[in-house]
Amino acid sequence: MADLVSHPDEVRIVSKRFGKGAAEIEQYLKLDGYKAVQKALRMQPDEIINEVKTSNLRGRGGAGFPTGMKWAFVPKESAKPKYILVNGDESEPGTCKDRLILEHDPHAVIEGVMIAGLAVGAKVGYIYIRGEYRYLVDIMRKALDDAYAKGFLGKNIFGSGRQFDAYWHTGAGAYEVGEESALMESLEGKRGIPRIRPPFPAVVGLWGGPTVINNVESLASVPHILLMGGQKFADLGPPRNGGTRLFCLSGHVNKPGVYELPMGYPMKKLIYDVGGGIPNGRKLKAVVPGGSSTFLLNAEEAENINLDFDSFSKRGEFLGSGGVVVVDDQTCMVKFALRIMKFYQHESCGWCIPCREGTDWLKKTLTRFHNGGGLKKDIDNIKYLAQNMLGRTFCPLGDAAAIPTMSIVDKWRDEFEAHLEGKPCPFEPEAVITELPVLSH
Amino acid sequence: MADQKEVKNVSITVDGKQVTAPAGTLLIEACKTVGIEVPSFCYYPGLSLQAACRMCLVRIEKMPKLQTACTVPITDGMVVTTESDEVRQARKSMIELLLGNHPLDCPVCDAGGECELQDMTFKYGAAESRYMEGKLHKDEQQWSPVVYFDRPRCILCYRCVRVCGEGMDVWALGVQNRGSGSVIAPNRDDHLECEECGMCIDICPVGALTSGAYRYKTRPWEMNHIGTICTHCGDGCKTTLGVRRSDTGTDIVRGDNRDKSGINGDFLCIKGRYAFDYFDHPARLKQPLLRKNGQLVPVSWEEAVDHAGKRLREIRDSKGGQAIGVIGSNRTTNEENYLLQKFARTVLGTNNIDHHRTADFAGLARAIAGKENATATMRDVFTAPAILLIGNDPTEQHPLLAWNIRTNVRLNQAKLYLANANPIKLRRQATRFVQLAPGREGKLVSFLNGDDAAAGSLTNATVSNDVLKQFRDELRSQQNLIIIFGSELQGTDIAALVKFGAGLKAKFICLGDYANSRGAADMGVYPDLLPGYNAVASAVKFSEEWGPLPSAKGLSLTEMAQAARQGQLAALYLVGSNPIADYDFDPAAFRNTFIVAQELFLTETATLAEVVLPAASAYEKSGTFTNTCGDLQLLKKAGDITGVKTDFEIIVRVAERMGADIRKLVPFGGATRADMGQSRGAQSGEADRHAVWLAANGMEPRMSPFDPMAILDEIQRLVPGYEGSRLNLLAGNEQHVTAAEHSAAGPGDGLVQIVPSNDTLFTSGTLGRYSNTLNSVIENHRANPVDQEVMAD
Amino acid sequence: MAISEKLDAFFSEKMKEYPTSRSFLVPMLLYSQDEIGYVSDEVIAHLAKKTGLTELEVRNVISYYSMLRTKPAGRYNVQVCTNISCQLRGADELFAHCKKKLGIGHKQTTPDGMFSLEEVECIGACSWAPAVQVNYDFHENLTPQKMDAVLENCRKKAKQ
Ligand SMILES: Cc1cc2nc3c(=O)[nH]c(=O)nc-3n(C[C@H](O)[C@H](O)[C@H](O)COP(=O)(O)O)c2cc1C
Ligand code: SF4
Ligand code: SF4
Ligand code: SF4
Ligand code: SF4
Ligand code: FES
Ligand code: FES
Fold first, then answer.
1. Beta-sheet strands, E only, within B505-621
2. pLDDT band at residue A278, thresholds of 50, 70 and 90?
3. Are B179 and A353 a contacting pair at CB < 8 A?
4. Does residue B121 register a pLDDT over 90?
5. Segment holding B248, helix H or strand E
6. Which of B52, B175, B177 sits opposite A394 (nearest CB)?
7. DSSP 3-state assignment of B361?
8. Domain at A25-235, CATH homologous superfamily
9. Per-residue pLDDT band at B255 (split at 50, 70, 90)
10. Please, what is the end-to-end C-alpha distance for chain B in angstroms?
């Protein structure tokens, strides 16, 4: 459905079957489908895990945790059943890549789940897809049915005598259930309130059993890793950042789209070469590097950083989810900060005080500010509130709300000052916005 | 218990102090052991962990972020800082964030002065508001006759949700919406259908949940707080009554559980919390009544007592004591019960004394006579590894017992074995549940004792032979079992049950219905038993002390009614009992009986009386109660109603008018040479210490024949099993008494005559009918019938 | 309103894939809503029974998820994403256009019951912004003119 794009710098691994009808199982089989899982069936669990470790695959959900290491945390022996849980809740603003995988290559996800199951000794996998992606749920349902019909799933997978079941599941509108522990709650039929950790899901997860939770893209990469070899995958990126990644380019660029590029690809090239630069002759002001939960970069920072986890963590910042949002110089950063905060206020699960109250307060203050009712002390107060949320909330959503806000206040403080005390927004001079659309739940 | 692995101790350092505690102890609890109080809102001991309020954030070395002390189990060598600028700032900011949307209406809030948010605001100085946005506003809602909710004050600590669900097993509260729209919601859209226990109100750290009974009545600091015992069911919860002076005496404005030291810990049911309100019901009798020309008319105390005393004396002297009957109460104190039977036997000269028996305590006493440690305390139920419950429905009839069982199962994985004719709610906590046909409880006991033939009458669609055998086998393997039974088991069945328990070191609890029914039994309000279950035929110890006593067994309550019908009961002396309602007797039978009634209200029985003497309720007097387990506790006077007298005083006054020697009836003034205060210092502080010392040494000046403590002295002297530390009792602690174990009742006559009250959570015999709270709750539940399934599952 | 037997049978089948009976609750609520337009009291009672939960608990779950509603909405629920990627490419103007065109605001329904309008968070179409979902169908790279065509199409479909 969504348009596909291409660029010569792309290295097509996860996206290699995009646009090739691979949602149909026969076509998928023609394109090397289900070869990796059959290979995995012949491997020892440790061998699979080692291959994934070697690949330097790091979680594509945003946190970048090494996938092989995560799998290795699962205890070998467990009284309770183990599970694989695919995180297809994709709701991070700016991120739209899992959608393409689920649309164009659903069997790769199924295959990835199966391999993860073989690696950790789980016999059941659940594929959780956000509620809004109904057409992808339908595609996945069909893919699962087809795989069962062929005997790829079920009691005796590929005639190996081993069992693996994979099921689809869907959400109903909640960003927070993308957070892994809230995701488990949601799958168990509950409100998406995160769980206390430790224990971590790898030890105590779904229904108390050890559970591996991985992003769609992470798992869709796994069959390729097994087929091409972990080392080859690792070599595509810089050290400790293996393989390629789907970058979702959006905002003020000429050629937005989802591009598969090697890890460590320069941000500058992504914006100007791959994305074709900023439209209307405007200049770059800011970049959201990986979904709205990351520290924003100013133009200079953006033009000098590479897209891998370590380049960001060196600065104490985050690469994030692959959602690169480009912002031009005619954009009001106060309005931008407000829109981000409205999102977190709307999506906060409300469990803990700092996030529930902090996002609400910040949204109200930013709304007033952008409407021209800002006071000088508000600027510091915004920073103060965000700082007091950071690191103190129950789950990372609170941090995610604080991070972009803090970086916007820090880097574009002058824009806040330009709004003070009844001054209209400098970027919307004729439109003193009196009524902002307010999302109420 | 599930597994009793050795838990090893670990040492940690908190703010430079060494703390040693078992591994796995939550950091917040470990801190408490050295007096470090980490602030918390959402943490509540015994309820599930939330990590929601973030008030308890502390710095733990080697951890990147501040950690919640309420969720982190301690590990060896942990180094913790609970007081630093960083930690204080984190706490302060939480308060600031909370106050952002808080209405700040503390001056009119019920919790003002006892609010944890207020306390913390004060402590962390977050009162200066950075907040300039509009606040969420919502009107207060009434959710039930007793529960009100003020949303803006709620800090979403989820304590109420958990105590209702995990603690009460009612699950009537939930969280609706998400984010800043999150709100605590009742189970029926805009109202609650629940057990109305008020636990949610009690546990709320702020004034978001408030009680219908107390709302806006007063401010906490305008009250005095009196710790006493609930006057309703037989469980004996300690309650704290908030009292305030009024024009007509002293008002009780609030009942709660602020002093969690009682046998009920956190718990109170609706009755303990709200149903004290009968005490100032408009129908309360406040003046003696005397029948003149067929009408009860108000008269002076002098006239009423004089009339009663003279008539009783005439009847005794002309027809003999056997023409007089006495019916005692399940709700008067031990001292009053003891005094009443002593009055009956020594002044009226009759053994015709009985009370409304709701459980066969005498049967238990006969069965365990001579055994040590045969009865369990209420606290034991909280910790026992296994419990067998036969009959009764504690959720309705013994709410505290039910709470203790539930909590024990939840926190300690205790095993609950349940046999009942109904699928009672506690089956949800049961390890095994056997549903019996009604009336087969005795058969089950036979089966437990090895009579396999009894199985035939026990099996049904859900209970097979195997199920029964498994039930028995598992019970047989239990050590330290507590066996609890209701009125379904009596006489020989109890004896058989005790035999079964003998090999298992089992302890027993017999469930009787009212606040002091156990006390009435222990104090000998029986026609055949003297205090301490001593048979009237062999009452040497008592006759030595009291003088000659009638030695033939007297008439039981139903026999008295029979005698009245036959014109052989010339007089009936009633104290706090309503047999016309409880036994459905024909009022006409008492046409020719001279009736004196000590009562709170003009009950069905009191209307038949010639003399009605307005009595003080148990909230308006001192003394002791013995709960159904045998836990003796001190009752303290809280309320005061002008015009009434305690049953104790009334009995003494009537006896005096009958010409009795009051000094023999109540040993006051004599035994101890009272210190009249000569040794007191000038300051009141010293005077208080002096009083405490006197009390502790049993030397309070018993200057009045109306001092129940004078009788308690005698009880403790004459009733084995009632001795014990007076100081402990005065300090508000319970003492387990063992009168039943020391019984010398001799064989029973098979006439057990148990009539259970069948009270529910919302009823409490005659008294309950005068509680506006209970009535409004019953009304409300009639209007919105409770969905059985949802209540039950 | 209650759900069809067919849907209920489908739920019963799916529930077997989980170790606890409440696990499939969220999808059941969403699919029930899809069938009858909202989660009715009847559906709540039915699913509570089916999963062994109290109705309160089911309501608590419903109120957490933003797609679930307990009141009917329009036949076509127009969900305009105004989150950052879309906002940068004209989503606010698009939403304003929809409001004007339909004469309704956020979470409102046209009097004829044809359209509901909602401002929503990121729907995973950021690279094709601005984007709108009408019920479950994505419409991307929109302009006010293209939006008009989308709405017109809905009206046409409704007539068939
Ligand atoms: C608020 C929040 C939302 C998240 N949403 C998603 C999501 O939609 N998809 C996803 O894969 N991970 C999401 N995550 C990250 C997950 O918690 C988790 O780290 C991830 O699914 C692990 O998979 P990976 O290691 O393969 O990346 C989210 C995290 C947070 C805190
Ligand atoms: S930070 Fe707190 S309120 Fe926010 S989503 Fe996480 S748990 Fe919920
Ligand atoms: S009064 Fe008791 S039963 Fe009712 S909601 Fe509160 S805690 Fe639950
Ligand atoms: S009502 Fe009281 S107990 Fe319940 S969540 Fe709110 S503050 Fe906590
Ligand atoms: S359980 Fe019994 S003693 Fe306790 S408060 Fe309720 S009625 Fe009173
Ligand atoms: S007390 Fe620890 S988070 Fe609330
Ligand atoms: S921001 Fe609109 S679809 Fe992602």
1. 507-510, 529-530, 534-535, 571-575, 594-599, 611-614
2. very high
3. no
4. no
5. none
6. B52
7. helix
8. NADH-ubiquinone oxidoreductase 51kDa subunit (3.40.50.11540)
9. confident
10. 26
* C55 in contact with chain B, both atoms CB, cutoff 8 A: yes
Percent of chain B scored above 70 by pLDDT? 92
Confidence of residue B699 (pLDDT cuts 50, 70, 90): low
Indicate which of C21, C53, C56 best probes the interface with B, i.e. most B CBs within 10 Å of its own CB: C56
Which chains have at least 3 CB atom pairs separated by less than 8 Å from chain C? A, B
pLDDT over threshold 70, residue B679: no
For the residues C126-133, what does the mean pLDDT come to?
Answer: 98
The residue ranges of DSSP E strands in A235-382, in sequence order, are 244-251, 257-262, 265-266, 284-288, 297-298, 306-307, 323-328
Chain B residues closer than 8 Å to A361 by CB: 97, 100-101, 131, 133
Give the minimum alpha-carbon distance from B745 to chain A in angstroms, rounded to a whole number.
56
Rounded to the nearest angstrom, the distance between the alpha carbon of B775 and the centre of ligand 3 is 17
pLDDT digits (tens, 9 = 90+) for B644-662: 999 999 999 999 999 999 9
Domain boundaries, chain A: 25-235, 244-328, 333-418
Best residue of B60, B102, B132 to probe chain A, by most A CBs closer than 10 Å: B132
Kindly give the distance from the C-alpha atom of residue A178 to the centroid of ligand 1, in angstroms, as a whole number. 5
Show Cβ contacts of residue B476 under 8 Å, excluding neighbours closer than 6 positions: B503, B504
Residue B170 pLDDT greater than 70, yes or no: yes
Report the CATH architecture of A333-418: Up-down Bundle (1.20)
Question: How far is it, in rounded angstroms, from Cα A304 to Cα A100?
Answer: 29
Strand order in the sheet with A83-88: A165-170, A124-129, A83-88, A211-215
User: How many angstroms separate the alpha carbon of residue B70 from the centre of ligand 1?
Assistant: 26
CATH number for A244-328: choose from 3.40.50.300, 3.90.550.10, 3.10.20.600, 3.40.50.1260: 3.10.20.600
Tell me the ipTM for this assembly.
Answer: 0.98
Per-position b or e across C103-140, b if 16+ CB within 10 A of its CB = ebebbbbbeeeebbbbbbbbbbbbbbbbbbbbebebbb
**Residue B127, pLDDT score:** 63
Q: Would you place residue A432 in the very low, low, confident or very high pLDDT band (cuts 50, 70, 90)?
A: low
B187 part of contact set with chain C, CB < 8 Å: yes
Nearest-by-CA chain A residue for C11: A169
- Is the beta carbon of A270 within 6 A of some atom in ligand 1? no
**What is the rounded CA–CA span in Å between residue A61 and residue A69?**
15
Closest CA to A404 of A344, A356, A337, A338: A337
Tokens 């943490």 map to which residue? B43
- For chain B, percent of residues with pLDDT exceeding 90: 77
The domains found in chain B, sorted by start residue, are 9-83 (3.10.20.740), 105-280+766-793 (3.30.70.20), 289-358+517-660 (3.40.50.740), 362-511 (3.40.228.10)
